[in-house]
Each structure stands twice: as C-alpha cells, then as structure tokens.
Amino acid sequence: MTPTLVRQHRSQAGETARVDRGARARDWSEIQERMLVPLYEAVYERLEVGPSTRLLGLGCGSGLALLMAASRGAAVTGVDDSSPQRLDLARERLLPEARGTRAGGETRLVGGTPQDAADATTPAYTLVTAFEPIGCLAGDSEGLGELLASATPLAERGAAVVLAGWGPPERCATTSVLRVATKLADPLRSAGSWRPALRDDLEEVAQRAGLKPDGSGRVACPFGYADTESAVRGLLSTGLFDAAISATDQAQVDKELTEALHPHRRRDGTVWMSNVFRYLIARTP
Asked: What is the reported pTM?
C-alpha cells in the first residue's frame, strides 16, 4: 500500500504523468488506508503504545497510523519522500493548526528520509514502524531493508521495530485481483511487478538489517468498499497496478480490475474481500 519503500520500483515501472497524484492521494486516505486499521490497532495494543512512546513512522503516507498513535499520547515523527500529496494530507490530520487534531504528544512530519528527521535535540525513538505491507512487489523487501538501515540508528537499544506484510495468498481474497497487475504488466519487467507473498519475507528483511525477531502475529484486515468504483479507486491508490498502467493504459487496467472484482461483489453492490496480514516485531541491537 505503498509509499516510501517501493518508490524506486514504481519509478522503474515507468510511472507517467497520466496519473493524477492529488486524486490518487485522496483515494488512498479516504478509501484504502482505513483497511489496515486492525493491523495498527493490534500492534499498538501489543506494544502498549502510550505517552512514553517515541514513534518513528516510515513511509507514513497520509498519517492515519500516526494519528492513532498520537491519540494514545505518543510523540510521533513521520517520514515519507514518495508522495508530497499524501504528506500534505497527513499535515492536515496531525499538525496542531489543523482542525480536529487530537495529538497527545509532539508531532513531526518530514518530507524526506529518516536521516532528514535526525535531530540532535530529539531523544532516540522507542518504536519504529514500517506499516506498508511488503510481499506483493518484486524487490520491495530490498527497499524496506534500505529504509531500515537509515532508520534504526535513530532508535534506542532494544527498541521495537515493526514490519508488516501480506499474509499467505490462500488467506487473502485480494490475491486474485492483484494478479491482474502481473497479467497486464510488461513480462520483461520485474521491478514493480506484483508477486505472491512469501512466508519468510519479514524475517529475511529483519535478519539482513541486523534486527532480532521478538514476536509476530496475524491480523484480519478485510477490504470493504461501498461499490465497485470505490474498490477500483482504492486498489489503484496502492500503486500496485502502476506497472500495468504503464505497460497498457488506464482504461484497460480499470476494465480488467472491474472484472476481477465481480466475484467479490455482494447483492447490495458492496465489494468485500477477506485478507490476513502479518506483522513482525524485531529489536534493535
């Protein structure tokens, strides 16, 4: 779902000016982002996120996960260098001058890398989150590894680092829909193309980053939409279909995505797909 850690792969996939970035960001924040709320809640409950938490959110996007942590009293810092439009939406949600903000602690948003958020006056982070699920784009685990390499030095010793990924394909109804991305993408192109999630994706990333696994879990995150049009907009906002759009065109992707969603459409017109996501808790050395 996809911000910072897949930006390189999307660029290689040949994103074009045909995509309205502002509309895409709004679709993400208004339609798709909420699908991962059960994942955020499960992690925050397990780690007892609260006023003593200093959280660094990687690829924070439009900031819903940060808002939920801030509502628990945590001091939150979000970094994202892939979508200025999403970060603008995060500022509306989180910054003190934004209407309706209920952040319980210090809140910072940085359009850049974790190093851009480094500040000698800021205490080390107690929690680092990378909530964008990996395991669906070829090469996304490498992108996450690079992101962690620049982020973990900013955390205190033994700090929790949370990685997220798609669950087993057979437990994710959306898998059949995501296969449209592979079918339409250029077969000669690998980076940016969808692939099935692998069982040890998260553990392998943690190992390469020098982190010590300290628990994991699975969370049901069903994707529910008011209608097929909303489902198409929400899924396109993840960026998982960008390579397909580049290889064909928007109309073709919309058509095949709509057809793939048909088995998941209910009698009342809503679209519902059950999914399971994994998270791994690791610790900094």
From this structure: 0.88
